[in-house]
Amino acid sequence: MTTTTRTPEEQARREAQAKSDHRRKVGRTILGRGGAYAVLIGFAAAMLFPFLFMVAAALKTPEDTFRYPPKILPRTAATAEVAGAEVDLYSVDVPDSGTATVYLAEPSVEAGLFVSLDDPEVTISWPLEFATDTGSTTTVDGETVPIYSVQQGFETVDLALTRNTSVGRFVGLDDETIETYAVVRTAERAESIDPQWQNFSDIIELRDFDRSLTNTILVTILVVGGTLFTSIMGGYAFARIRFKGRNALFVTYIGSIMIPFVVLIIPLFRLMVALGWVNTLGSLVWPFVFNAYGTFLMRQFFVSIPKDLEEAAYIDGAKRWKILWSIFVPLSWPAIATLATFMFLYAWNSFIWPLVSINGANSDDFVLTIALQTLGGQAGEGPNLIFAAIVLSVIIPFTVFILAQRYFVENVATSGIK
Amino acid sequence: MTAASAKPMSTSSGEPRWFRPLLVWRVFAAVLLTFALIAVALQRGIVLDGPVRWSLLVALLGAVVGAGIAIRGTLQKVHLGRFAGFTIDLLLMVVLGFIALNRMGMFTGVDAVGEAFNGNAAWLAIVILGWFVSGFADKAGGNQKILKQVAQWTMITGMVVLTVAMGLIPGLIEFATRIVEGDVILFAAGAVIAGVFARILWSDTAARLFKTTQTEGENMDGMLFVAPNVLGFLAFFAGPLIVSLFISFTEWDGLTDANFVGFQNYIDLFTDALFLKALRNIVIFGVVAIPLAVIPALLLAALLNSKLPGMRFFRAVYFLPSIAGVVGVTLIWKQLFNSTVGYLNYMILRVTEWFNSLIGTGWEAPQPQWISDDSIALIAVIILFVWQQIGFNTVLFLAGMQSIDGTLYEAADIDGAGPWRKLRNITVPMLRPTTVFVVATSTILALQLFNEPFILQAPSPPSGPGNATLTPVVYLYQNAFQEFQIGYASAVAWALFILIFGITLLYFRRSGDEGVLTS
What we know:
Order of helices and strands of chain B: HHHHHHHHHHEEHHHHHHHHHHHHH
Distance between the termini of chain B: 57 Å
Strand content of chain B: under 5%
Helix content of chain A: 40-55%
Number of domains of chain B: 3
Low-confidence stretches of chain A: none
Radius of gyration of chain A: 37 Å
CATH class of the largest domain in chain A: Mainly Alpha
Oligomer: heterodimer
Mean pLDDT of chain A: 83
CATH superfamily of the largest domain in chain B: MetI-like
Strand order of the largest sheet of chain B: 1-2
CATH topology of the largest domain in chain A: MetI-like fold
Largest sheet of chain B: 2 strands, antiparallel
Helix content of chain B: over 70%
CATH architecture of the largest domain in chain B: Orthogonal Bundle
Largest sheet of chain A: 8 strands, antiparallel
Number of helices of chain A: 15
CATH superfamily of the largest domain in chain A: MetI-like
Strand content of chain A: 15-25%
Low-confidence stretches of chain B: 1-12, 514-519
Distance between the termini of chain A: 62 Å
Number of domains of chain A: 3
């Protein structure tokens, strides 16, 4: 017969085992959490980077958007005021003191192009006043050239003079004692971070972008409002009123959600032609205020409202119209807000239909998507202005999203799981 | 009926005093509709050609028959008379009113409002601010009355200023004066009269007169409430859908008469190299892009579903690409894809250099021409699509995961299952309906790919280098709006629709979950 007697050693071993198990578990959790956060942050960075890039590019100068290697922050060539005049700033290597911010004090100083005696690839342009002829000569590329003793900072080296040239004299901006020489054309400009805020006003003035923004706001308000009205009415009828053909009609509605919009583009465009609505904002509004998805969404919500609430009002002689707007609608804010966000995104971002129905050259009836597409397709505008326009076009959706995030997420959730 | 009648509501015989005018109107409406029927039957024109003319004829024929029934029912004072009369009056009001308003420029008037509105949006912002604050005051409760009043007055002032600044009142007056132009007044008058009689027939007095039962009354209620939706649905959805099917059987340039060609357009599709190329592109696109947009989303959702802090922030960040709008997002990526100064190639270069320095290899960094190289252009579209879609799918999966019964995980915990096993054995199987939905919506979106190639390739044609980004919808667009092969383009649209329908059906059939279909 075996009994489970624990020897002290065994006890200790078990405790140690448990401790190390626990430690391993904690370690694994921390590792797991760290890993989870690493993945999440990695994806978040991938999602955010293009938007960061958008904002930065919107604040750049046109040349800055074509810089290679690319840099995120908007930079411009720096200038400063020296002795009452505006001068360009450069960033140059100064012997003995590293890189310094300097300005061009004298644009043309007589200089020579000197070549190292050891390596003909190493050249330097340096003023002749710091060079003295040593009298000896050497051969560079088959030519006999004089050797000069050139003083550079505290160093003096022997170099071969190949030809005459001119350099600029640069003086330190903060420290006047810094003085150096370099070929002006190839000297590196000093840069400062300098957001170009006027890009926004430029794009508004150049392209009537404010009109596109206004039009989009108007179309969105009308589409959202109209859809809410028809969906609330229809949803209530499907949820609460028993009428002939209700179920058949409802099934037709649900089925129609599956039909892709592209099937409708051609006949709808012909209808717009027949009604005289082509190239008007009306073509973006009226066909889209009748929405099967919205009716379905409202119906689902109304069905879940308990019947006793309306019955009391019904007995009091209230009409359906009044019951709908005074009892159902106030109770249905979550569903209404969800539908509103859905329609908002749809109206704000729709592209293919405006592309078809607003095809004129008149920018007065442009909406943002068309204005952006027109701008993006033109080589003339600098990318910075295009990015300024994109920023303007996403400000409102992003603001609404931040304010009503719950409903956006709910909208997605309800469309998926019901 | 005499002027001396004592009871204002009814004559001595028990009829309300509107009964005789109603009868006159019933007869007048019937005559009017008959004339319209004859006029449409005899007239020929481009606008009234084809299915539009036939459906108009059928509708008018139905209306004339209905008008006859309404006269008979009104004379007999039975509910059928009320119902038929009400339906006709409602439709007449909508149709005549629509024509009148369209002639007056009501529907195209949004442009004028846009022009007036431009520059005055600040006032609208004040109105909205007032609305928000007053709503906030409501929520806060207690002694917020003053705040609420201030907010409401701000709102009202903003509205008044906005109305004046926009010139809304002179605009409306000008708009109203258009009613006397030409025949608009006739349509408007017809609409108003029909509306008045519809209102009368709607009343309780009419219900009593025509002996309407409660069920019959409910029928009318239902009809009235779904009317705005159903009429719009017919005009802008069902009608165009049928017309679209008809056009797909014709050869039509949109200007001259259409030739009926039967199934020829569909037969041509099978041998059209460009259409087949478009199908090939979209299949490659779907096979690559959909798994890339779905599988990482599932893993991200599983991570987000933990109770760790900061998850709401990540969810919001992942959702941003879905908010921003495809045009802006595509233009941003177009710059990132730039082969000489774009960030993507720059990052490839830096990563390759880093690798080379790390393990001492001498690889040369590939610097593809993302947009103009015909072997890569589609990959660029895939990258963009996946980037846009992942976050949306993540939020869908997350919603699905949050609706899974928590006790399942508790039971698994007791059994000692790790996070990976829980994901495999509980989350994934329980998420099946969501997964089917995510895959199906991603597929439907992918099959309709248009915006991304169109914007990425602009100002070049959206079909891309060597038709590398030619998709069915791009092909449809080019045929319909650039080549004016409208019949053929419609056939492309229906072929695509059949494809989408078939795939959707397949997904839901395989998932075996009936509940999904209802959404």
